[in-house]
Structure formats: C-alpha cells, structure tokens
Amino acid sequence: MAAASPRLVSLDALRGFDMFWIMGGESLARAIGGLSDAPPAQFVAGQLEHVPWQGFHFYDLIFPLFVFIVGVSLVFSLGRTLAQHGRAGAMRRLIQRTVLLFAVALFYSGGFSSFWPDIRLLGVLNRIALCYGCAGLLFCFLSPRAIAGCAAGLLIGYWALMTFLPFPDVRPVDANGKLISATMTATNTAQLNWSTSTTVRGVFEPGFNLAHYVDQKYLPGKKWDKTWDPEGLLSTLPAIGSCLLGVLAGLVLRSQTLDQRRKLLYLLGGGAICLVTGLLWSLQFPLIKKIWSSSFVLVAGGCSALLLGLFYWLIDIRQYRSWCQVFVWYGMNAITVYLADKLVNFPLVSQRLFGGDVKTFFDAHVAPGFGTLMLALGEIGVGMLLVWYLHRRKIFLRL
Predict the structure, then answer these.
(1) CB burial of residue 26 (10 Å; 0-12, 13-18, 19+)
(2) Packed helices 9-20 and 294-311: angle between N→C axes, nearest 10 degrees
(3) Are 237 and 61 within 8 A, CB to CB?
(4) Contact assessment for residue 330 and residue 15, using Cβ atoms and an 8 Å cutoff
(5) Which residues are within 8 A (CB) of 247 and not within 5 positions of it... i.e. 6 or more apart?
(6) Which letter does DSSP use for residue 205 in this model?
(7) Omega of the bond prior to 117 within 30 degrees of 0, cis?
(8) Average model confidence (pLDDT) across the chain
(9) Residue range 328-341, pLDDT digits in tens
(10) Nearest to 63 by CA among 279, 292, 333, 323
C-alpha cells in the first residue's frame, strides 16, 4: 500500500506513540524507576501503572487515546470511501472491517482454546471494533453537529443511568441473610444474592455499580474481573463517545475551510474545554476507567486532543519530523505489532536474550536493577525491529 499522505504523518506518529507504551514503554519506565529512588523516577514509574480504581494516571490514557485515534482515522478512511463509492460502498467497508476486527479480537483473547464459558467475548480489541462500527455508522449518516449531539447524549445518558437508575443489591450475604461486607467480595456470580429485593442507585464501587450489575446479569462467557468486565456491555456506550470525540477532531483536521492555525486552536481549545469539564464532572461522577465514566471520557478525550494538537503543530505545521520516525513505524503497523506481540511474545524473546545469568551479571557488575532495564530494552527492541523491517519493505498491513 502507498504510504500515508504527509497530512496524516502526525496522526501516524501519535498512534505509534500510543503503541510504544503498549509494546514495552511501560516496562522501560518501571525499570528506570527500579534504578533510582529519586522522586522524579518514582513518579514516572507510578504514572505507568493503572490506577486501581478511582483516579487517573498516564497509563490510563493509553486505551482511550487509541479509541480517540480510531475516530480521527475513520474520518479520512471512510471519507475517501464515501467520496469514491458512495454511502453503500462505505457501509460495506464499515461492516466488513468491524466484523473482521471483532473476529481478530476473539482470536487474540484465546479463540476457542478454552471451553465455554471460559471464552471472553468482550475485551480491548472487541471494544475498538464496536466503537469503530458505531462511530463509523454515525459518521456516514449524520452532520458534524449531530455527531457532537450524539457524543453529548451518550455521556449524559450514561451518567443519568449510572446515577439514578436503581439496581438490585446482589452483594453476598451470610447464612443469616446479612451482608458480608459493604463492598463487593464475590469472585463468582453464583455467590451473589440474586434473590434480594433491596435496590440501590448512584454507587460507583468495584463490582458494585449499575454497569457491573449488567455484566453480572447479562454478559455471557468469561469476565475479566471474575463477576464483571472492564470492557463490559453498558460501559461500551461512553467508549463510543470517546470515538466520536476523535471523529470531531478528524473533521477539524480534514476541513478545507480552516487553515492550519485555526485547526490547531480548535484542537487545543476543544481539548482544554473537555479536560476542565471532565475534572469538574468528576466531583460527582468520579474518574474511573473500569466503568469508563463520563468524566473519564472527557478527561481522556481532552488529553488526547491536546496531544494530537501538539503532534500536529510539531510535525505538520513546524515540519519537525526526524524525532518521530520510530513512532511512525509503529503507527503505520499498529494492529500488526499488537497481534505479533501476542503470538511471538516480545518479553519472552527478551528473556531468552537477556535473562538468567546475563541479567544477574548486569545487576551485579553495572547496577542493581540494570538487568531489568536490559530486559525492557530488549522487549522494545524486538518490536522496533519488526516495525522498522515492515516500513523499510513498504509492508503496511490493514484489516
């Protein structure tokens, strides 16, 4: 396939920047944190860990940033298909790609290697497929203003459901019918108190909220967190909102009536508004990635728009491109390297090169923790070598 046009270099680089942290960047940050007890090193290492429940670290941005980028990208890809083949052709392409991506997601999660019900139907790639399909459908039929209205409606509607809709208090009880604890302690849905007549509302605790109740009741198959899934049914709705924010950013970048300066101002201004609004909203609806709260969508979407604006300014406006070439390699083969890591296991390859006595040698003769650093560099190096080779041979794999 032909390389992406210069107009999209910043988008490829941002996608690659996002993939870099998935493909070993977080291991590198943790390894550096292990070399030093200095507060800056520990802060960076901490930012590359997910918040256990409520809050926001840099690593919590990685997944919603990719969903945002999917929205930006579909404006250009589906936009070209609409222009060349009309709405019918775009819909065929949209459906085919959504189904294929969802099938690949099932394979990535283990396929049929396990017996039912130990097969996970929803996960990271599955959510990306659903967000792409729904956002693409709206893009094909709605105006930009209507798309913005749909994004707002999804976030406000999800907040209203999570806050005001009552659901059964199915927390486990003891032999006397009393709650075992105020929080969710079950690890199996069979332990839940399905016979309860008590209802609650507006609760945002792990395993004990409307989104997780819907997973417990209606999501078949394996659930990532035992009785619920962080990529579950109800929380897919605000995730589509994340993708629609990306669609709006893509419409700004594709606009023929805005110059580069105004496009940058729209990205930065819109990102700042989303970020501030999300932080204020979090006072009532907390920042929680595992239920994809509406405040989380706005904070992550705001950060994503600000990052896209920064990359757009550096790469497409100022034409500073030499620093981002590695990210472009990753970005132009993002799904390929993601699947390759699952099949090849980059950390295992690095372990075979720098583990055992090699790691012990580095720890003993260079510095404690340096062996772990070498393992992280090896993991990154394997992925980097793959995307460099694919880019050098002009091989760009798409679904």
Answers:
(1) buried
(2) 120
(3) no
(4) yes
(5) 71, 72, 74, 75, 135, 138, 139, 147
(6) B
(7) yes
(8) 92
(9) 999 999 999 999 98
(10) 292
For the chain, the structural domain boundaries read 6-165+228-392
- With a CB cutoff of 8 Å and minimum separation 6, the contacts of 112 are 119
Using 50, 70 and 90 to split pLDDT, how confident is the model at 343? confident
- pLDDT attached to residue 203: 94
pLDDT digits (tens, 9 = 90+) for 118-134: 999 999 999 999 999 99
Instruction: Give one DSSP letter per residue of 130-185, joined into a string.
Output: HHHHHHHHHHHHS-HHHHHHHHHHHHHHHHHHHHH--EE----B-TTS-BS-SS--
- What is the token pair recorded at 98? 């959504």
Closest by CA position to 25, among listed 332, 381, 336, 370: 381
Q: Is the pLDDT of residue 204 over 70?
A: yes
pLDDT classification of 4: cutoffs 50, 70, 90 = very low
Are 220 and 117 in contact by the 8 Å Cβ rule? The answer is yes
